[in-house]
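QUALITY CONTROL LOG
STEP: pairwise intake check
CHECKER ROLE: data steward
CRITERIA: each record must contain a sequence immediately followed by its structure tokens, with no blank fields

ENTRY 1 OF 2
RESULT FIELD BELOW
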Amino acid sequence: MAKLPVSSLRHLRLGASAVKPSRLVGAQKCINTRKFSNSAPTCTDGVFRDLTEARIQTPWIEALRKKQRNGEDPSKESGIPQVPADRKLEPKRMSDSYHRVILPLAQDPWLLDTYLNSSGHIRLGTIFMDLDALSGVIAYKHTGEEVTTVTAACDRITIRNPLTEICDLEYSGQVTYATGRSSMEISLQVAKAPKGGEKVQEKDVLMTCTFTMVSLDPGTKKPVNVNPLHVETEEEKRLFAQGEENSKRRKELKTKSLIKHTPNDEESDIIHAMWQKQLQWHDPNDPLRRPANVQLMSATRLQTASIMQPQYRNRHHFMIFGGFLLKQTFELAFCCAASFAHTRPTFVSLDPSTFQNPVPVGSVLYMTATVVYTDPAVVDPNRPPPSSDQEAQDPSAKKKRTRVQIRVDSKVRNVEHGETKPTGQFNYTFTVDADVKVMPESYTEFMLYIDARRRAGQVQASIEGPVGGRVDPGERERVME
């Protein structure tokens, strides 16, 4: 009987015990026999082991005891540079950082077990966690081990072709933009795993995304330069130009932020019209009242608090890795959208989101999810509501499907709750099969609404974009959630 490859066997954890795949001699024995050993597996956090092994190389207890012996906190800056100022930064090729991993979901039912939710769908949050881990592997292949590399932003995660059946997946990516400064852009792809010797077809691409990573000096915690890219082929030039465009767009968004500028004329008119609508709803002399399908933004909020455990640490041991935050914020956003619409939401995209401050192991993470925008909106000058005559003649005129945007804000406090820092802002878009709308009340909520409305325009542009890069709007059946 043919042996199963070790890479397709799943560790089974029970307290400090684990299955030892190397001791299972065949497929039948793997199914019927579970042997236990006192050796702890390196897969500690739910991330696919081939990615975890590249990230976690020392058991937590050893890292903690070393910290206690030395009397220093490696997560704090020492003020002493550890990266040589004169180190050579030779240009590197994109292919130098290329990394590819096969996730054998169809071959390994125990591995699949860790990726499924209660309804038998693949958990997107777990895929997001894997992608951040993969971006870290790729970043260190480009920079080397002497620097500390952290996730600074996730520019966008979109669904291209929804997965309709359980199959093996291929994770792949490489550094596609680096100019020699401290940051680099990493482009990632999730696709159906091709057969041996074949290439991934466009129709098999499930998901694409880009992460921005920043390299720091381990001692000073300040940015340090990394190797620039040397581009050769036309495809590499295209990817590099796209990264340059993404960098410019991020800078433009900062300059046009509502923190720095007032809403434009159209946006001001929308705010005024919504305020007038609320006055009308509250006017005792006007029979019109707030419709049952319109919820106040303040009523849509969901909040969580959780202590950060070492199983979700990054490769430097004392900080939580960014993929865990992506998973947690996604699942809270999903719950928020479901609570708002009273139906299961379908993921469309993770819009440009930022990681602001690191999350220390042992700290308390607070997250707040809010419905900040819906399309169709309560008031939209560019899309007047259909008249009753139109609805009578065409039932589809009254749109039942709504695109919902959820903003998740996260902050971290130490256990003593003496210090609070913002850790990130994450923006998720879902489609729901319901006619629901959100209404802001305070000025702060109106600013959240207008900011989300701008993001919604970018999502719509990607849905209506060229066929090769078009994003799925979340209206087709799928086995992901």
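ENTRY 2 OF 2
RESULT FIELD BELOW
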Amino acid sequence: MRLRSWLLPCSTAAKPSCNKPPEPSSSSFYLSSDGSSLSEMSANCSSSLTSTPSSDTSYSSLQTNLSLQSLPSIPSLQKLPTITDALPVSVSQHHLASFKLPISHLAVHGAYLYVATAHEINVYDRITFSHLTAFNDRDSSSGSVKGISFLRREILTSHQDGKIRVWNLSENNKQFKLVNTLPTVNDRLRRFILPSNYVNVRRHKKVLWIQHADAVTGLAVNGDSVYSVSWDRSLKVWQGSNHRCVESVKAAHEDAINAVAVSAGGTVYTGSADRKIRVWAKPETEKRHVLVATLEKHKSAVNALALNEEGSLLFSGACDRSVLVWEREDSANHMAVIGALRGHRNAILCLIYVSDLLLSGSADRTVRVWQRGADGSFNCLSVLEGHKKAVKSLVVVSEGESDGVVSVCSGSLDGELKSWKLSFSPNSNIMNCR
């Protein structure tokens, strides 16, 4: 598999940050001819340690990992554990399934858990974890599934072929039916005649501005709006009611965009291989989204973004092995960095935030569980180990507000699907965090 040359020198324990990528050319963000996956590139943006992860998650292990200072200029938000600290969580692990191909994305909606491997999406019961069905299993031409999101009763999937597919679930026979492919045929027909509707994507090649010219790496939904980002460096906005593309930011970043998140208020965050997070908003006086801020603290490609429910905290993970925590400033509609969470030995590939818990999955094959305290600091409650390759996706399956149990699923590039049950002690405020 050929990798982009600038992604290779990313951090190891001896080299804490990625080298600066070269200035992008007009075609630098396109797939190589062998269709290499950026998820695999991200997994390799930090070289793997030669030793296997230790199964010890005790005080000494946490102390050792806290010594890895990947971004020393940013203060740490972690509380150093003391020898008398009792971690208020117990963990049980269950192996759910093994796939021949890497797991690229996990999602939960309604009664179902969705597991994407290559072009196929497997569906499980989110309570019993029994396999129910699979869809898109015959259309290998779509390429691997990069993201899954939900708009009312519709399921949206983004693919390596640059398209977004819309599915409906029939409750009668539990079958998933493809109802649309974005951009739609009608949308293309409305625009293909006028030359002004075409944009240059590389030398001697033009496409309609409503099309993604490369893999669609992320989806986010807010109200009736769907936001998509791509390796082609663009951000697009789709209207959910008619599946039309209503807006496109052609060069939202200088390099491939890997992640997107949107707050309930409509503020959009995009994370890119150019090491930047950009903040987009649509003022009442404007017809389109405008760039309101660029957040530049990471030293390498940004792979993952997550927001808390209020949209006041943003978490970002990158190849520099750090999770940065950003807080919304009262005087602005964007974020300022307040600290870093350290401990992972390799690139951060996925993040989820639920209640007061942040979970981070990494190319070091582990998942870390962080809890936010009342003072804004974070404790690393546990290090979940068991995967043999990079952890690519995380999803919360159930939240037990009454019994203090949170169930999480993780998917990795070794094709392993695992379930983790996190049980919190009665004195932990996780049960009363809402």
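INTAKE CHECK: passed for both entries
DESCRIPTIVE NOTE, ENTRY 2: The domain at 101-342 is CATH 2.130.10.10 (Methylamine Dehydrogenase; Chain H).
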